[in-house]
Amino acid sequence: MEETVRQFIAELRQSVENGTFVKLTLGNYRGDDDSLQKILARPVETNKGNRILFQYRRKRNSNVANFEAEDAIAHVEKLLTDGFRSGHLFTTVKDLQLTIGKRSAKIAPGRPSFSDPAPTSHDREKTYLVDRNAYYLKALGISTDSGSIRSDAHDKWKQINKFVEILTGLYESSDLREKSVLNVVDMGSGKGYLTFAAYDHLVRTRSRSDRLAVDVTGVESRPYLVELCNQIARAGAYDGLNFVPSTIADFHADEIDILIGLHACDTATDDALYQGIRGGASIIIAAPCCHHEIKAQMRSPELLAGILKHPVMHERTAETITDGIRSLLLEREGYKTKIFEFVSTEHTPKNNMLVATRAKQPVDREKIQHQIDELIREFGIESQKLLACLKLSELTSMPDNWE
Ligand SMILES: C[S@@+](CC[C@H](N)C(=O)[O-])C[C@H]1O[C@@H](n2cnc3c(N)ncnc32)[C@H](O)[C@@H]1O
Predict the structure, then answer these.
(1) pLDDT tops 80 at residue 212
(2) At what angle do helices 311-332 and 385-392 cross, to 10 degrees?
(3) Any atom of ligand 1 within 6 Å of the Cβ of 160
(4) How far apart are CA 97 and CA 316, in angstroms?
């Protein structure tokens, strides 16, 4: 190794050891990896102790990896011999600029740009679950060209990250990791934020194994949104991601592995859940939006009459009963369900998320059906869309008191 590069590495090692290391950037890449452009390394605290986080900036996305200090230093040595022609080391004592020319290398020292060590909070790393620099986030106006989140898009950004966190947890603990082709459908995809995020994240997750194929379809009834999303998907070379103009009910997929249906209006959520059940989805993620269907027909059981006379209580109970029946129906169809708080959006302050995963144990359909029958009877419900869809498809029977 060139003496100057050796000296640069020694300075890096010293700064890591004495705690003055702030960050390192590597640039001017001339190596064999076509997509690699730049690398940024900085210290982070992880659950396993202090590490150095490397962010690999690529043409269309980024990926990250953590290394222990010694491995990180060895990694930098290798990167500087494998194609990076410049390195910029920032410490709280000085800055050092390494430039590697064709015949020789030189180091230019400078005054420190930073007087404090880098914050090592895990928080910054956590945001890497979604890459701020991803093309789709810029195209959809969530982040700027330099990767900052736009001031009016922070809520959406938070929601996208939370959604990806939930999706990742469900995917990682499912058998879907073993599937060679993953089929994902996002019902009522709207402007596609979550569809792109799901695609991007699943592709990156699966690129670490040999199970690469991810086929994601966004289903949306508004054609101009479909066109916009398809344009962005083509421009960003998101192969395997398509948007189709269709109502949720009319869309047909033979096989679905993951069904997403967030903030689809009223009974469109039922259409989405039904499509997930019909397509044999292993994972269903829904965030119900408005709950008009049950609210309009629900009457109060005698016991609750004094409570449900208040319109706000009537409305909230209708939501609870609607999502409760949906989750019971999913359980009856062989799923384990969870309902928990998601983040609210500009679409709706309502923020329940309903997640269903295939149950490993057989379910007691009769017992669940009995609970559904009781609810329907007690609250005087005359129709519920998911139940009607399941009845129509003859996947199941209707309760005795059903019209
Ligand atoms: C409130 S937006 C939510 C978009 C996205 N899922 C999200 O959470 O960011 C709901 C979208 O679902 C679409 N939609 C509602 N009902 C639908 C239906 N029955 N079939 C297809 N699309 C529907 C609407 O046009 C709208 O774009």
Answers:
(1) no
(2) 30
(3) no
(4) 61
Phi and psi torsions of 33, nearest 5°: -80, 105
**284: its two tokens:** 């269903």
Q: What is the pLDDT of residues 153-162, one digit of tens each?
A: 988 998 999 9
The angle that helices 223-235 and 193-206 make with each other, rounded to 10 degrees, is 30
Ligand 1 contacts CB of residue 220 (under 6 A): yes
- Report DSSP letters for 307-322, one per residue: HHTSHHHHHHHHHHHH
Please give the single-letter amino acid code of residue 162.
K
CA 400 to ligand 1 center in whole angstroms: 33
Q: Which two tokens stand for residue 63?
A: 């990926």
Quote the ligand 1 centre to 288 CA distance (angstroms).
11
Distance CA 65, CA 168 (A): 17
Q: Phi, psi (5° rounding) for residue 58?
A: -115, 175
Ordered by where they begin, the domains of the chain are 3-121 (no CATH), 127-392 (3.40.50.150)
pLDDT of residue 117: 67
Tokens of 2: 């060139």
Q: Is the pLDDT of residue 123 over 60?
A: no
